[in-house]
């Protein structure tokens, strides 16, 4: 019990630190190549904060822990929308000005529905996984195209401001990228081992551990990024980080985990409880961000609603 809990705590601390170093390093490398700030922000920052989910789920899948692998991805999306955006809005209300964000949200909804169709039969074989990965590469191409075209979007100026402090030294940038990547792999293994042993110790399913402790832990980089951005007044970065992370989780994290180890006998609650909860929250976020009567704002009331949704979901998990 002591070893498992220590492994989880240490794994989470190292995971958050290494994810931050990896994103900072990768952003600095991209900056050294004079890539557009919007492209760096949407691809590296938006997707990079989900590297903990990627490593944790792939290691879990490799170890045969299918439910922890997919539970981590779905749970992270639920945490991102309800808990992270909810807490961020309670601290600093979010105004959605970017047209890019409003275009990405319907895409996230379509991706969420696609995953539901693929796991309807309670399995995710390699063909399903390759469909998700093909979708990810298509999303990546579309994101790059948008980033190169939408230079006047408010999101662009916010990313310029965010990246202004990035290191311009290639050696330092490469050092932090590699250090972050190596530590990510080690801390992910530590977290999966601790989560597996914790589940066995308390008689809780690995799915629930993946949906709660592991999902919250791997989503901490998104929390730090979104809260920090909102406090700086970079509202579109705050919500864009969550949307980019959620798309990456569904396409790349679940897809790559399915390639590593096909999931052939999934628990029905993954679809009826977890996927439906994620889909519901995605629809709620879509309406909040697109706006009702022209108001595109996630205020403290909406933030409280989102946090309450997470409380209700957690109650469902343990009852």
TrEMBL record:
Domain of life from the UniProt record: Bacteria
Cited NCBIfam families: calcium/sodium antiporter
Gene3D superfamilies linked to this entry: NCX, central ion-binding region (1.20.1420.30)
Listed name of the protein: Calcium/sodium:proton antiporter
Gene Ontology CC terms, in alphabetical order: plasma membrane
UniProt organism field: Catenovulum maritimum
InterPro entries, per database record: K/Na/Ca-exchanger, NaCa_Exmemb, NCX_ion-bd_dom_sf
The keyword Transmembrane helix belongs to this UniProt entry's keyword annotation: yes
A Gene Ontology molecular function term of the record: calcium, potassium:sodium antiporter activity
Membrane topology: Multi-pass membrane protein
Keywords: Membrane, Transmembrane, Transmembrane helix
GO biological process: intracellular calcium ion homeostasis
Keyword Transmembrane included in the entry's annotation: yes
Domain Sodium/calcium exchanger membrane region: 8-144, 173-318
Transmembrane feature ranges: 38-62, 74-94, 100-120, 127-144, 173-195, 207-231, 237-260, 272-292, 298-318
Subcellular location: Membrane
């Amino acid at each position: 019990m002591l070893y498992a809990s220590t492994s989880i705590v240490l794994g989470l601390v190292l995971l958050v630190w290494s994810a931050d170093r990896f994103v900072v390093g990768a952003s600095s490398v991209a900056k050294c190549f004079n890539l557009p700030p919007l492209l760096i922000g949407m691809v590296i920052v938006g997707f990079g904060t989900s590297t903990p989910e990627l490593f944790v789920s792939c290691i879990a899948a490799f170890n045969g822990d299918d439910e922890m692998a997919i539970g981590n991805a779905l749970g992270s999306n639920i945490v991102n929308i309800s808990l992270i955006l909810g807490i961020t809005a309670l601290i600093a209300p979010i105004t959605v000005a970017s047209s890019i964000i409003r275009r990405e949200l319907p895409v996230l909804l379509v991706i969420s529905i696609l995953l539901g169709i693929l796991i309807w039969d309670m399995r995710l074989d390699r063909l399903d996984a390759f469909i998700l990965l093909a979708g990810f590469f298509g999303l990546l191409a579309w994101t790059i195209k948008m980033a190169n075209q939408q230079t006047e979007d408010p999101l662009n100026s916010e990313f310029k401001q965010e990246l202004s402090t990035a290191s311009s030294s290639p050696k330092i940038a490469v050092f932090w990228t590699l250090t972050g990547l190596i530590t990510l792999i080690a801390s992910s293994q530590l977290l999966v081992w601790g989560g597996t042993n914790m589940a066995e110790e308390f008689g809780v399913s690995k799915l629930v551990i993946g949906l709660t402790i592991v999902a919250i832990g791997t989503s901490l980089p998104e929390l730090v990024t979104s809260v920090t951005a909102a406090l700086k007044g970079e509202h579109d970065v705050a919500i864009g980080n969550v949307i980019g992370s959620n798309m990456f989780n569904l396409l790349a994290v679940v897809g790559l985990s399915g390639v590593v180890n096909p999931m052939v006998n999934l628990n029905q609650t993954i679809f009826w409880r977890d996927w439906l909860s994620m889909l519901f929250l995605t629809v709620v976020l879509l309406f909040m961000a697109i706006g009702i009567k022209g108001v595109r704002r996630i205020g403290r009331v909406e933030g409280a609603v989102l946090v309450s949704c997470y409380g209700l979901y957690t109650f469902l998990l343990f009852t």
